[in-house]
């Protein structure tokens, strides 16, 4: 089945209402895109913020005559006569296949691979984490995850206790276990991340070494040899005393989720507790690392 889509530039204050109107007009799905370059990095739980300049895309069955819908929208005061819009044909595809085709095994550092379950493992003798994209963040394709995976691969984790703060899909926690960690604790504010990490750990046969907590349930006196936190600059600064307290003297720390321009400030802040290394960068993102004083 083929489709047509109607693209309309709108303001975030009108986007939801416009979406509802278009669903009433027979649209089968509504999607929102950034109309400018205004990144939204990490919305709070339960929030779905939109961009000031939002592009709304309404999908319709290809047989739909959109003329009455356009006429109707022209009566809306926030759009008006001759409002800017575009109608596009969308060729039908096997979207699941298309999506699956875009994920491939990726190598991080010397030993570690992240492999989608539907792909052949390129190097069965390597350290392989089987992981499919899901609702929680963390497939390995984002530079911040990649920087943390490369850092974990560079360590000798045999027998070490590790904390993964902001565990998302569990990708870093599971990689740490497969790289030799004795025990890993994953913490996340999002219960979907806890569920995803549990399922991914089970699939990788490492669930017995992974303990997962929402922050309010994490054990007191949780201490580790290695702590990795891929969150964002703001929370990393807020959480700094708590993070520092969890790392044993001489223990190792990696922080990511930082934009390059934020790295120096966060590094300076953490140097109260850690001897910090120079930052590593990938695309616009940075990773900091250090040793607990
Ligand atoms: C960028 S994702 C990282 C996921 C995964 N560790 C990775 O490297 O791909 C950040 C995760 O941190 C979680 N998070 C954000 N703020 C947090 C906080 N204050 N405490 C614990 N987790 C937090 C989010 O829910 C999200 O799952």
Summarize it:
With 293 residues, the chain is an alpha/beta fold. The chain is built from 9 helices and 15 strands.
Jot down its keywords.
293 residues, Rossmann fold, Ribosomal_PrmA_MeTrfase, 30% strand, Alpha-Beta Plaits
Note down, in words, how this protein is organized.
This protein has 293 residues and is α/β, with parallel strands linked by helices. The protein has 2 domains: 3-92, Alpha-Beta Plaits, CATH 3.30.70; 134-292, Rossmann fold (3-Layer(aba) Sandwich). It has 9 helices and 15 strands. It has helices at residues 12-24, 67-74, 95-101, 143-154, 171-178, 191-203, 233-238, 240-246, 260-270; strands at residues 3-11, 29-34, 53-61, 85-90, 106-108, 112-115, 127-130, 161-165, 183-187, 210-213, 224-230, 247-259, 274-276, 280-282, 285-292. Strands 8, 9, 10, 11, 12, 13, 14 and 15 form an 8-stranded mixed sheet that branches. A 4-stranded antiparallel sheet has the order 2-3-1-4, with helices on one face. A hairpin with a 3-residue loop joins strand 5 (106-108) and strand 6 (112-115). Helix 4 (143-154) packs parallel to helix 5 (171-178). The longest helix is centred in the N-terminal third of the chain and has 13 residues, at 12-24. The mean pLDDT is 93. It binds S-adenosylmethionine (SAM). S-adenosylmethionine (SAM) is lined by residues 136-138, 145, 148, 164-168, 171-172, 187-190, 193, 215, 230-231, 235, 239, 257.
